[in-house]
Amino acid sequence: MVRVLPMTPSLHLASVAAVRSVSNGRLRLPLPLPLPLPFSAPSLRRPSLISLRTISQQEGFLGRRGGRYARNFSSVEAGAAGNMAQASIALKQEEALEWVKKDNRRMLHVVYRVGDLDKTIKFYTECLGMKLLRKRDIPEERYTNAFLGYGPEDSHFVVELTYNYGVHQYDIGTGFGHFGIAVEDVAKTVDLIKAKGGKVTREPGSVKGGETVIAFVEDPDGYKFELLERGPTPEPLCQVMLRVGDLDRSIAFYEKAFGMELLCKKDNPENKYTVAMMGYGPEDKSTVLELTYNYGVKEYNKGNGYAQIAIGTDDVYKTAEAIKICGGQVTREPGPLPGINTKITACVDPDGWKTVFVDNIDFVKELE
């Protein structure tokens, strides 16, 4: 069991300030300030805090000049205390960011809603080559989940499809982009999808400004999949693309709060967009988050189809604290889920995209 240590008052105030600073859409972390000496004169000793009553007494004894002198002592002390709090906050930030870098993190699965579960499972298994890993029905909550992918959940990134009883259509919105799947032969895969009645929205061909052969297809609910021609890879389900309104802000957030690495950043001025690949490993061996910024577009409609990404962590409590320190918004405080006792915490990034962090040990137990 993880013991959560109480925060000191100064750190608590800093956390509140950090969370409030996100309300305007910009991530601002307080910076450490130098601690000035109260007075430059070497002969003066550092005074203790002076109460208003003491100041009043000094005014009567020393006159107005003495009162002003006493009040100067008090204001300098307050400034010094504030600077000490800032230094303490900076140390807390440094410790949190260092822990995030060392945490054992991996992208586990992506969750989204579909209108016909059986139809979607058939498309993913027959056209995209995925395997149905497990399926669970929760009748009391009126929904069913299906997990599909290219390998076991304890070592591969998978999709978690959610079917809510009686809901047959969702709005995908304009913010979600696509999922990426690495295949050895894009043209062959497209021919198979066509033969199965699938929808191809971009025929096979080289990507603009590059040599990689790609194609785009849609599943029965309209979610787009980019097929990328690559050699054999341990992680075929290789990308999740989301659109953001401020790319530099998003990169900073995912680096600091999530511990991801900026793998590459590509600007395409001809088509007026920039992409950044973020992840916990190289693109050809692990799943990455593809953040896309379209010039001049600051907000997107997220719809109600796409839900969230799940990431594994060794400690959901420390994860939530680090997210708060980095100015992120925690939407579910860390703790066990009712019924299954898997510890999780949830947050949203500066654009409102949701992520759930799952305790690594509890996740493995859940799979058993």
Automatic annotation (TrEMBL):
Keywords: Lyase, Metal-binding, Repeat, Zinc. GO terms for cellular component: cytoplasm. InterPro entries: Glyas_Bleomycin-R_OHBP_Dase, Glyas_Fos-R_dOase_dom, Glyoxalase_1, Glyoxalase_1_CS, VOC_core. Its EC number is 4.4.1.5. Zn(2+) binds at E160, H178, E226. Its cofactor is Zn(2+). Binds 1 zinc ion per subunit. In the homodimer, two zinc ions are bound between subunits. Pfam families: Glyoxalase. GO terms for molecular function: lactoylglutathione lyase activity; metal ion binding. The active site is at E226. Pathway: Secondary metabolite metabolism; methylglyoxal degradation; (R)-lactate from methylglyoxal: step 1/2. One of its GO terms (biological process) is methylglyoxal catabolic process to D-lactate via S-lactoyl-glutathione. Residues 106-230, 236-360 form the VOC domain. It catalyses: (R)-S-lactoylglutathione = methylglyoxal + glutathione. The keyword Transmembrane does not apply. Catalyzes the conversion of hemimercaptal, formed from methylglyoxal and glutathione, to S-lactoylglutathione. Belongs to the glyoxalase I family. This is Lactoylglutathione lyase. It comes from Rhynchospora breviuscula.
